[in-house]
């Protein structure tokens, strides 16, 4: 077994400090807000996995179907020797891309990029064992901060799937796409998965499923904060909400306080009160249109060259180049 050289741009101390700062900022804002990146502890990742298999949650299976249909073309037009995958590195979508690039004969290197070293180690070992001769170079980092640290060798395909970009608001996306553009050179390409605007009833159902899995996923962030920062949130005293914002064209997940209550976050020496009915935003999940994606990419200096969707126009994969 070859040893893995993990390059780390995020040590556990800075991760914890970042979380402390984010939670303090969010809980002292009006209205209160929590960043979605803290959903994904072991339990949260398990719940997300369950979400991807729910009948109401179409994005994962739809993106996979688009990829199956077009992955050979993606490999042919990119001729990538390096696949860089932002956030995840565990999915079967990665394998589809790796298989297609291997079949095209260009694949040399795989760079999974994730905040979670454990996720990364697992993904790297599995993929390394599965693809003969593949050089696996995992990078631990935050895609909003460390894209500048990505390895530069080879013809690179940078993949950001699952519509995770929808967790960013427009200002954050502007900065993110600029970072993507800055790390890409001539011959490189950017593969982006975006969920598309559609009937609000379907969108709301996808984020408020009948089995209540998304509700558990949303509430899990309170368990994460309790454990990581010594807080005493009572998850039973909050209710999951999913709301379509037609103006912003995004889904908002919120946690609504079922009663007047005080919460103490011991590690931050912070006391916060919630009034009955008060809603705290825990996630935005922006939905896109082709023209908007093309315009945002163009503003960063990326040209959209391919746009693949499913027959229902529910989800899109785009390929853009510097
Ligand atoms: C992983 C961020 C793409 O926004 O659809 C799923 C997360 N939240 N259900 C999304 C999520 C609620 C998901 N992303």
TrEMBL record:
Entries under SUPFAM superfamilies matching the protein: S-adenosyl-L-methionine-dependent methyltransferases
NCBIfam families: egtD_ergothio (TIGR03438)
InterPro entries in UniProt: EgtD, EgtD_Actinobacteria, EgtD_Methyltrsf_superfamily, MeTrfase_dom, MeTrfase_EgtD-like, SAM-dependent_MTases_sf
Enzyme Commission (EC) number: 2.1.1.44
Domain Histidine-specific methyltransferase SAM-dependent per the UniProt entry, residue ranges: 19-319
Task performed by this protein: Catalyzes the SAM-dependent triple methylation of the alpha-amino group of histidine to form hercynine, a step in the biosynthesis pathway of ergothioneine.
Annotated GO MF terms: L-histidine N(alpha)-methyltransferase activity
Catalyzed reactions per annotation: L-histidine + 3 S-adenosyl-L-methionine = hercynine + 3 S-adenosyl-L-homocysteine + 3 H(+)
Residues reported in the UniProt entry to bind S-adenosyl-L-methionine: 87, 93, 114, 142-143
UniProt-recorded name of the protein: Histidine N-alpha-methyltransferase
Gene3D superfamilies noted in UniProt: Vaccinia Virus protein VP39
Family: Belongs to the methyltransferase superfamily. EgtD family.
Binding site for L-histidine: 57, 167, 207, 283-285
Gene expressing this chain: egtD
Class of enzymatic activity (EC top level): transferase
Pfam families, per database record: Methyltransf_33 (PF10017)
Keywords assigned by UniProt, alphabetized: Methyltransferase, S-adenosyl-L-methionine, Transferase
Ranges annotated as spanning the membrane: none
């Amino acid at each position: 077994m070859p040893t893995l050289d993990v390059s780390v741009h995020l040590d556990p101390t800075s991760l914890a400090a970042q979380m402390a700062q984010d939670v303090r900022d969010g809980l002292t804002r009006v209205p209160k807000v929590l960043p979605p990146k803290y959903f994904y502890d072991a339990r949260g990742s398990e719940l997300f996995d369950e979400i991807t298999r729910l009948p109401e949650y179409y994005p994962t299976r739809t993106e996979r179907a688009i990829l199956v249909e077009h992955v050979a073309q993606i490999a042919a037009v990119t001729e990538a020797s390096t696949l860089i995958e932002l956030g995840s590195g565990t999915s079967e979508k990665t394998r589809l891309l790796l298989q297609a690039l291997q079949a095209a004969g260009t694949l040399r290197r795989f760079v999974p990029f994730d905040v979670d070293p454990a996720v990364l180690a697992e993904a790297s070992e599995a993929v390394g064992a599965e693809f003969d001769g593949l050089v696996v170079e995992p990078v631990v980092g935050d895609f909003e901060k460390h894209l500048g640290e990505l390895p530069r060798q080879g013809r690179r395909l940078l993949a950001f799937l699952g519509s995770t970009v929808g967790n960013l608001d427009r200002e954050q996306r502007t900065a993110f796409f600029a970072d993507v553009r800055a790390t890409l050179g001539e011959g490189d390409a950017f593969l982006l998965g975006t969920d598309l605007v559609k009937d609000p009833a379907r969108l709301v159902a996808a984020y408020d499923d009948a089995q209540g899995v998304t509700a558990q996923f949303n509430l899990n962030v309170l368990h994460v904060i309790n454990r990581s920062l010594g807080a005493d949130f009572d998850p039973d005293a909050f209710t999951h909400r999913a709301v379509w914002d037609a103006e912003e064209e995004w889904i908002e997940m919120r946690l609504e306080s079922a009663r007047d209550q005080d919460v103490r976050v011991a590690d931050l020496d912070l006391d916060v009160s919630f009034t009955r009915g008060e809603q705290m935003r825990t996630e935005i999940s922006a939905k896109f249109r082709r023209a908007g994606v093309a315009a945002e990419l163009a503003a960063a200096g990326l040209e959209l060259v391919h746009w693949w969707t499913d027959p229902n126009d529910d989800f899109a994969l785009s390929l853009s180049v510097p």
